[in-house]
Amino acid sequence: MSKMNEAKDSIFKDSTEPEGLEIKGYDFSKQPTLSKLIESFYSTGFQASHLGRAIEVAKKMRKGNVTIFLGFGADAVASGVRESISYLVKNKIVHALVTTADGIEADVIRTRKDFVLNGKGKRGDNFVGNIMIPCDGYKIFTDILNKTLSELYVEQKKSGEIATPGKIAKSLGKVCDETSILYWAQKNNIPVFCPGITDGATGNIISSFKSKSRDFKLDVSDDVVILEDTVLDAKETGAIILGGSLPKHHIMNANMMREGTKYTIYINTAMEGDGSDSGALPEEAKSWGKAAADVDSVKVQADASIVFPLLVAGAFVD
Predict the structure, then answer these.
(1) 56: which residues sit within 8 A by CB, 6+ positions away?
(2) At 69, which helix (H) or strand (E)?
(3) What's the farthest any 2 CA atoms get from each other in the chain?
(4) Chain-centre distance of CA 212, in angstroms?
(5) Which of 46, 68, 194, 209 has the highest CB neighbour number within 10 Å of its CB?
(6) What is the CATH architecture of 47-111+164-197+219-315?
């Protein structure tokens, strides 16, 4: 036998019968529907199959008696993902929110000012990706937050009750409209946790307020107690986390108190290689006890502005 034939024999071997789901995408020759298209993701392969799996996990969360923690940052709130989050909060589908200071800012500002796609901003207008945030929106937010802080400061002097990030979020929700995540959170008594409250414009406003009212207090430790009590009181916990960073770790770290989440969905574009928490896979959480040993988990490595509305449509819309 020639060396070439030997090489061919080593390459072209008989296959064993493959196990698993047949790869098959959506057949557009049939009348297209959103539900059928979403169903096809599971068998499409690559990140579409991860999305199909995420929808499956989310359906299990909704079906079971699961306390769902939703984590997100300002990018989600600045974009149209805000409407998907508002829907879940309005309908009490999620039970606790963890966000960033600029996530709170964006939610409040959008009740007063429109954010514009690829807008031609004046000097001082601010961009998040291809979304423009009008700079005067922050002046409006400054006035609103200062009024909120003043009210909480009066309450502190009157009763000794100290402000927390959760109380700030609840107070802001009361002055927002029905498009707002914070509005529905306060109306439905869904806690909003913001461990990085002193970041961004919010931190600057708090600093300025405190420079004039030196005895004003802001206690983040009360919110940690409420968060971990929520974790411990739950029958089962699940996490849906858009992006990474502080909201992601804050949710998963709290769930160490009960030996981890039962269900976990990550949606982000971060990679594992640099050792960041944002890029960490579900297996990392399991190693720390942030996710249960038998966790039902998936990471969809994709843009949440595309994937999350599809997840909501596939798992949470009847």
Answers:
(1) 42
(2) strand 66-71
(3) 96
(4) 35
(5) 194
(6) 3-Layer(aba) Sandwich (3.40)
At residue 36's C-alpha, the angle toward residues 71 and 46, to 5°, is 60
Q: Residue ranges of the alpha helices (H) in the chain?
A: 3-11, 34-41, 46-63, 74-78, 81-90, 101-109, 136-159, 165-174, 181-187, 200-212, 221-233, 245-254, 282-288, 304-315
Q: Note whether 74 and 63 are within 8 A (CB).
A: no
Read off the tokens for 53.
């799996």
Given 248, 262, 290, 299, which residue is catalytic?
290
Q: Are strands 192-193 and 236-242 parallel, antiparallel or unpaired?
A: unpaired
What order do you get walking across the sheet with 291-301 strand by strand?
A: 192-193, 96-98, 66-71, 236-242, 261-268, 291-301
Least confident of 21-25, 54-58, 91-95: 21-25
Tokens 């700079």, located at residue: 135
Cα separation of 292 and 283, whole Å? 10
- Owner of token pair 């600093």: 207
Confidence of residue 236 (pLDDT cuts 50, 70, 90): very high
pLDDT above 90 covers a percentage of the chain that reads 85
Residue 220 identity: V
**pLDDT above 70 covers what percent of the chain?**
94
Mean pLDDT, range 282-308, rounded to an integer: 96
Instruction: Give pLDDT tens digits for 18-52.
Output: 778 899 999 999 888 999 999 999 999 999 999 99
pTM: 0.94
